[in-house]
Amino acid sequence: MHLSPEFLQEGPEKTEWEVEVREAMHDVRDKDLWGSAYDKVLPLNLHPKYGGWYAYRLVIVIDLE
After folding, report:
1. What is the pLDDT of residues 17-53, one digit of tens each?
2. Degrees (nearest 5) of the Cα angle 18, 14, 24?
3. At a CB cut-off of 8 Å and minimum separation 6, what does 22 contact?
4. Which value, in Å, is the radius of gyration of the alpha carbons in the chain?
5. What range defines the domain where residue 24 resides?
6. Residue 18's closest CA among 46, 54, 55?
7. Which of 4, 21, 39, 65 is the most exposed place for a label (fewest CB within 10 A)?
8. For the chain, how many structural domains are there in total?
9. CB contact burial 26-49 (16+ within 10 A = b; e otherwise)
10. How far are the Cα atoms of 14, 28, 39, 58, 59 from residue 22, in angstroms, in the given order?
11. Residue 17: enclosing H or E segment and its boundaries?
């Protein structure tokens, strides 16, 4: 399922879908690693305009000598 911006709702009110996903994620993730806050959804970020996306980071080291 693709997470698109229309699934998200601004403000403190959450849709039924958001509440269901938050509770499911809270039940299956490692609380020692991620804590118990409902706002964290593993490495997935939910942008209010662009929807879901993963953040990848990369470092390239080049030895020019």
Report:
1. 777 877 777 677 666 665 555 555 455 556 667 666 6
2. 30
3. 14, 38, 41
4. 16
5. 5-54
6. 46
7. 65
8. 1
9. eeeeeeeeeeeeeeebeeeebeee
10. 10, 10, 8, 29, 32
11. helix 16-28
